[in-house]
Amino acid sequence: MAICTPLNSSTYSSIIPQQNHHDAAVSFARRACWRATSSHRPRRGFTVITCASSDAGTVVIGLAADSGCGKSTFMRRLTSVFGGAAEPPKGGNPDSNTLISDTTTVICLDDYHSLDRTGRKEKGVTALDPKANDFDLMYDQVKALKSGVAVEKPIYNHVTGLLDPAEVIKPPKILVIEGLHPMFDERVRKLLDFSIYLDISNERDMAERGHSLESIKASIEARKPDFDAYIDPQKQYADAVIEVLPTTLIPDDNEGKVLRVRLIMKEGVKFFNPVYLFDEGSTISWIPCGRKLTCSYPGIKFTYGPDTYFGQEVSVLEMDGQFDRLDELIYVESHLSNLSTKFYGEVTQQMLKHADFPGSNNGTGLFQTIVGLKIRDLFEQLVASKAKSPVEAKA
Ligand SMILES: Nc1ncnc2c1ncn2[C@@H]1O[C@H](COP(=O)(O)OP(=O)(O)OP(=O)(O)O)[C@@H](O)[C@H]1O
Ligand SMILES: O=C(CO)[C@H](O)[C@H](O)COP(=O)(O)O
């Protein structure tokens, strides 16, 4: 199956033998940990090194989706909002799934597979099955990182299908846990400050995954029962869902090239004010094509309004169609409110910066960029609130 976050930049293994990766990584973390206060070995044999991520602790974001749904692309958009490039841990395992930037560390939950590829085959379970994953360790380590403690996280090697020696993860300002199950285990779910679900389940046989790849389609079919049982139900817990659907602008469309994308935003989430179009709480339908936005067939249609999702109050912003000219996106941006931008046109600037990323001409790229800005805003508000009431923040 596809690789979670493909990495390729390290020549470390040619310098340090494989068996020494672990010690070297721990020593690296100890050196880099700017406020190391203690080191001990708790249960399950992973070393923890106490660091302080920031005065406000680590903010934890969960991003759930099946393999190949665009999590890595989304993460590149998110880390770009915070500035700086995201890279694999320096001098580490070249097959690490982790991405680190100045502010964020993105870890892939595939690293908590308890069964390797052979083990899953022998037991007849997929990677989506909770039996193939170690939720106790996931919980322990996310909790440790959230409270400023570095951990030795295992690595699932997508190239070999084996579980590799652990890598040290220091507590970042923002920890993103991305993968199949960030909201599956209630204990892990409760650690999340914000959660997102990428829902392309209605679209997966179409443009996103490619019709031509029969083996991928067969694999998707084989995984479907477990996807329905263990992955899909997590969307009910998400604070924001990006849902990809077929267009309704082309009658009986079966090409799947034009997408209708919905950004479903839960109401009442602390530090998260849903984006709105024209008038908050109203129901709006808007076709922006005309003098200020170039649109070719089948055009673009935005809708916005209140709704319910799994019995919860939400606001939904929808974009059907695709942009012809990204520089004209500023016209759309100027009609959206609560975007959490720092300056006029920031959404357009981000979209233009990554015009070559998949989804930049439709609602997937637009809504991922907007969610990235909302996460930055949430992070800043959380930091500010904790600075105001440090006692409460520690509770
Ligand atoms: N918004 C999008 N629209 C169309 N294609 C996309 C979009 N996002 C990603 N893709 C394509 O889907 C494939 C998987 O993308 P990506 O690596 O970001 O997903 P992923 O969920 O991280 O995958 P994996 O779990 O396999 O690592 C790539 O070929 C990418 O170009
Ligand atoms: O669902 C997945 C998450 O990305 C992968 O299929 C799972 O991690 C197993 O990986 P591989 O197929 O490389 O053994």
Automatic annotation (TrEMBL):
Give the molecular function GO annotations.
Answer: ATP binding; phosphoribulokinase activity; protein homodimerization activity
> Which reaction does this chain catalyze?
D-ribulose 5-phosphate + ATP = D-ribulose 1,5-bisphosphate + ADP + H(+)
- Its annotated pathway? Carbohydrate biosynthesis; Calvin cycle
Q: Under which EC number(s) is this enzyme classified?
A: 2.7.1.19
Q: Which GO terms describe its biological process?
A: reductive pentose-phosphate cycle
Q: Name one GO cellular component term.
A: chloroplast
EC top class, as a word: transferase
Key words of the record: ATP-binding, Calvin cycle, Chloroplast, Disulfide bond, Kinase, Nucleotide-binding, Photosynthesis, Plastid, Transferase, Transit peptide
Q: What are the residue boundaries of the Phosphoribulokinase/uridine kinase domain, all occurrences included?
A: 60-250
Subcellular localization, as worded in the UniProt entry = Plastid, Chloroplast
What is the similarity comment for this entry?
Belongs to the phosphoribulokinase family.
Entry protein name: Phosphoribulokinase, chloroplastic
Its organism's taxonomic lineage begins at: Eukaryota, Viridiplantae, Streptophyta, Embryophyta, Tracheophyta
